[in-house]
Amino acid sequence: MSIMSLIFTTGSGILLLISSLLKIISIKESSNAIYKITFFPKTISKLLGYLFPFLELLISILLILRMYDLWVNTVAILIISVFVIINANAIFKHNNEECFCFGKFMKSRMGIGGLIQSSLLLFSLLPNILFNNSNVITVLSFQNYNFEFIVIIITILLWVISLMLIRTTIDKLLISEN
């Protein structure tokens, strides 16, 4: 269970890292996107839009390096739960606004793609609450870079790519239907 948890949590951390860095690169657009997809007043939304990518960056780094920490996992689960709620709300309101989740690099929309991706992220982190697992530092400290190490790293990267492909595929399928 700890290897599976390591793969899922590290992959989720890497996905959040990519997402946060792409938002930080285009911080102004990120701030505008938060205003479009939330119900907060403009000034609060803009402030959240500027602060959130840095919080996401911090959490992603902590997930990758200290994924067994209860506080890190709790905050990450809370943030991802907000993603689930926002995307579920978008589905109920038939709101398919662009969410700027991956900055300008990859167009993504609110809705079912975001709900599925966020739910997978959420389920990926839950085992860390139940089990005290190793982290990436443990994996990188292998004395011998052996086959298992390579398999774990490749599997983590495949999980990240899968999460991104699931999101973009669903978004593209839904756009083509409209």
Account of the 3D structure:
With 178 residues, the protein is mainly alpha-helical. The chain has one domain. Helices cover 77% and strands 0% of the residues. It is built from 7 helices and no strands. It has helices spanning 2-25, 27-37, 42-65, 70-92, 112-130, 136-140, 147-177. Helix 5 (112-130) runs antiparallel to helix 7 (147-177). It starts with a helix and ends with a helix. The mean pLDDT is 84.
What is this structure's SSE topology?
Elements: H1 2-25, H2 27-37, H3 42-65, H4 70-92, H5 112-130, H6 136-140, H7 147-177
Helix pairs in contact: 1-3, 1-5, 1-7, 2-3, 3-4, 4-5, 5-7
Features:
178 residues; mainly alpha
The percent range for helix content is over 70%
The structural domain count equals 1
What class do helices, strands and sheet pairing give?
A: mainly alpha
Strand content: under 5%
Distance between the termini: 42 Å
Total number of beta strands? 0
- Which whole number gives the mean pLDDT? 84
Continuous helix count: 7
Compute the CA-based radius of gyration.
17 Å
Biggest sheet details: none
Helix and strand run: HHHHHHH
Shape: globular
Which ranges are low-confidence, i.e. pLDDT below 50, for 5 or more consecutive residues? none
